[in-house]
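Name: Arsenate reductase
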Amino acid sequence: MPTSPRVLILCTHNSARSQMAEALLREAARQAELELDVYSAGTEATRVKDDAKTVMAEIGLDLSSHTSKTLHDVPDPQNFDAVITVCDSAAEACPVYPGQTVRRHYPFVDPSGGSLDRWRAVRDQLQTQFESVVGALKNGQEVPPSYADSPPVPAA
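Structure predicted for Arsenate reductase:
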């Protein structure tokens, strides 16, 4: 019996972008009836930011049970079909994965310290991108090599 593809979304603190991306990828896969095993982690753990919880709740996704994790908290951390970094420092600190693991880097703006409009813009960019990831996987293609064009994120 084939296993579901395993996808890891990696960021620095696993507190905002990677948490939102995890929930968005899981939901897009559910809607597309695509079985994925989705995780997020950080190069260091902190806490899930309240603004991330707020903007995700606005679209019906609940992050209240999410916790910030490192790779040590993820089951079988060296065995992923795809590893996607969503910030530059995580891309630089990302561990080496076996040759069969597809690595992608989608550099999303850090919404931390910004207005809720900035958080919403990043959420919407993440949603567009991870819907395209699901579309590619559903069609038997690799995870897209670059991220989708989205409207710019407000400065603050």
